[in-house]
Design brief:
This protein is mainly β. The protein has 2 domains: about 1-40, no CATH class; about 45-290, Neuraminidase (6 Propeller). The chain has 3 helices and 22 strands. The strands form 5 sheets. An 8-stranded mixed sheet has the order 16-17-18-19-1-22-21-20. A hairpin with a 6-residue loop joins strand 4 (about 95-100) and strand 5. It starts with a helix and ends with a helix.
């Protein structure tokens, strides 16, 4: 019997069997908890060694201004729409959609992600806010005015970052491919292979549309990729590594926090960034890497 159970466990692992958000095998798998295979997700991959080429433009981010940020927020999505700062947070049972007051970092209003799901990226199209979840293969739609859930949608694979050009949605899943999605029905229109110097750039996370470019945090690095949405080529890198003080960085690192959260405020022409467990929200300017080093 033990041999049969081991064979079954190996077969499930080899097939990449589905897991739920608690990391367990699906109901009816027939395996006791202690013998269920360890789940593998896109978050387990080693971060890419970016930048790949010294020829790709690179700039250092400088803090032009900063404000308090909830250091308990596991930031997943960040955006500014009509002067309102919206933030999506993650972790099972703790995920929320928030409207945040920039000056204080306090949540003006907040809505728990339905079902206690692990919330991910955000985007606004029209009068609706779209939010992904990580492993549940379901996203949620909220009324922009009230932040109350009004609908949901299904998608394949993992959900990471979300952005929009005002017409379609751009979705990341932790790989090097981005999906271009119709917000009406969440149908995939095309995919974008993201490369720099001919190398695929995986671990693409939070997304933002910035002046015709897609900006993407590369998970567990300090780098933001500036991506041409037509070709997928990385046009340049923004290094966020110098924003936190050494003490702040140490505290964030000890909790597993990373840079994550990009918001373009078109009305004021400014870019805001933060991270998971970061104590501050920054407005950034960019400097050539050599000048900033």
């Amino acid at each position: 019997m033990l041999l049969l159970l081991l064979v079954a466990a190996a077969s499930l692992a080899a097939c990449g069997g589905d897991v739920d958000e608690d990391g367990d095998a699906p109901p009816g798998s027939g395996l006791p908890p202690g013998m269920r295979p360890t789940p593998t997700t896109n978050a387990d991959a080693t971060p890419p060694p970016v930048p790949f080429s010294p020829a790709t433009p690179r700039v250092r981010a400088r803090a032009a201004a900063s404000w308090p940020h909830d250091a308990e927020a596991y930031t997943q999505g960040l955006l500014v729409h009509d002067g309102r700062l919206l933030e999506g947070t993650g972790l099972e049972g703790r995920s929320e959609l928030r409207e945040v007051e920039v000056a204080s970092g306090r949540a003006r209003r907040r809505t728990a992600t339905p079902g206690g799901r692990f919330g991910e990226g955000l985007a606004v199209v029209g009068d609706r806010v779209y939010q992904l979840t990580w492993l549940a293969k379901r996203g949620y739609v909220y009324d922009l005015a009230t932040l109350q859930p009004v609908d949901s949608f299904a998608f394949e694979g993992e959900g990471w970052g979300l952005a929009t050009d005002g017409r379609v949605l751009y979705m990341s899943d932790g790989t090097s491919r981005l999906r271009v999605v119709d917000p009406n029905g969440f149908r995939v229109l095309r995919t974008i292979q993201v490369t720099e110097a001919g190398n695929p750039v995986h671990a693409l996370n939070e997304l933002e549309w910035v002046r015709g470019e897609l900006w993407a945090n590369v998970y567990r690095t300090d780098y933001v990729a500036r991506i041409d949405p037509a070709s997928g080529r990385v046009l340049g890198w923004v290094d966020l590594g110098g924003l936190l003080t050494p003490d702040e960085r140490k505290a964030v690192d000890e909790r597993g926090g990373v840079a994550n959260g990009i918001a373009f405020d078109g009305a004021h022409g400014r870019i805001l960034v933060t991270g998971k467990y970061w104590p501050r929200l920054f407005q950034i300017d960019t400097l050539p890497a050599r000048a900033a080093d």
